[in-house]
Amino acid sequence: IPYEAFLMLPFIFxxxxxxxxxxxxxxxxxxxxxxxxxxx
Length: 40
Fold this sequence. Notes:
Helices cover 48% and strands 0% of the residues. It has 40 residues and is mainly α. It starts with a helix and ends in a 19-residue tail after the last helix.
């Protein structure tokens, strides 16, 4: 295995961990709703 592959391992593990954790993520309920100051 090339030395450069070992240098990439932390980045690969981070990307894999983020992909696994994002499967259960839910988008915010206010996403894409316009902000109207007078309705607050």
